[in-house]
Amino acid sequence: MPRLRGPTITLPEGENAWPLLNAHLFGGNHIGGHNVVPRAEVLPVDWAAIYGRAAPLHLEIGYNRGKFLVALAERMPAANVIGIEIRRRYCWRLANMLGPDPEAPRNLRFVWADARATSRVLFGPDSLAGVYINFPDPWWKKRHAKRRLVNVGFAHELAEMLAPGGRIWVKSDVPAIADEFAEAFAEVPALSAPTPFEQGTLPPTHREMSCMAQGLPIVRYHVDRR
Ligand SMILES: C[S@@+](CC[C@H](N)C(=O)[O-])C[C@H]1O[C@@H](n2cnc3c(N)ncnc32)[C@H](O)[C@@H]1O
User: Fold this and answer.
1) Structural domain tally of the chain?
2) Would you say residue 214 lies in a domain?
């Protein structure tokens, strides 16, 4: 089994393995992260079969510890909620936390993968009701700028995946990043101009609570698929 930093984490198995979709999508729960390719047999992904019902699908990118993801699923029991996180240890910890928990929301699933590389394959056109980008990594160094989550190309892809009336929600404590994303969204005719929203409209994220405790300013806006 691959080593993690710190103590080795094992994954829940059998009936407790339900929230993590890597085995289903990529052929093994140890297959994930960068450059993973969904199995041809699962494409196009049948999300209704995965959740056991057809419902509006909401995607959080970079769920980290999963606080927001779980709260969103609890707040929207009529929705199907999916998270994609690139760092394995967060996915596996959440799998261990939720898998054996009979109280965990059953309308929630998550994937260990690079959202920028895999979303377009996993989600068809008009398939997402909401996309949540909470406190994305700023990738400060100039040479890392290409790693920033939203560029014009990804903005076009997100707009295509969004159903008409669907919404991309952005929260950030780095105004320059929020502006940069807004500039990318502005290049996509199918998306509206950003509309600010208040704290409390959505559940708080881990990073958001820490920023609020420190009194740091937070930018919150949504853009909508026309
Ligand atoms: C600064 S943390 C914020 C975590 C959480 N959203 C919050 O607000 O507390 C950004 C998260 O996005 C994840 N991430 C960055 N790039 C990603 C990508 N391309 N696909 C999926 N997750 C990504 C990181 O691993 C990290 O967990």
Assistant:
1) 1
2) yes
Centre of ligand 1 to C-alpha 142, Å, is 19
What CATH code is carried by the domain that includes residue 64? 3.40.50.150
- For residue 93, the CA-to-ligand 1 centroid distance in Å is 15
- For ligand 1, atom 3, the nearest C-alpha belongs to 135
- Statement: residue 95 has pLDDT above 80: yes
Ligand 1 touching residue 206 (CB < 6 A): yes
Q: Residue 146: which domain range? A: 14-224
Task: Specify the higher pLDDT residue, 138 or 4.
Answer: 138
Q: Is residue 112 part of a domain?
A: yes
pLDDT in tens, 155-194: 999 999 999 999 999 999 999 999 999 999 999 999 999 9
Choosing from 46, 101, 126, 137, the catalytic residue is: 137
Q: Which two tokens stand for residue 91?
A: 């996915």
Q: Provide the mean pLDDT of the chain.
A: 95
Q: Is residue 149 one of the residues assigned to a domain? A: yes
CA–CA separation, 142 and 58 (whole Å):
32
Report if pTM > 0.90: yes
From the list 83, 70, 69, the residue with the least C-alpha distance to 32 is: 83
Please count the other Cβ atoms lying within 10 Å of the Cβ belonging to residue 6.
7
Contacts of residue 55, Cβ cutoff 8 Å, sequence gap at least 6 = 48, 78, 79, 80, 107
Q: What percent of the chain has pLDDT over 90?
A: 91
Angle (CA) 180 186 187, round 5°: 100
d(CA 56, CA 123): 12
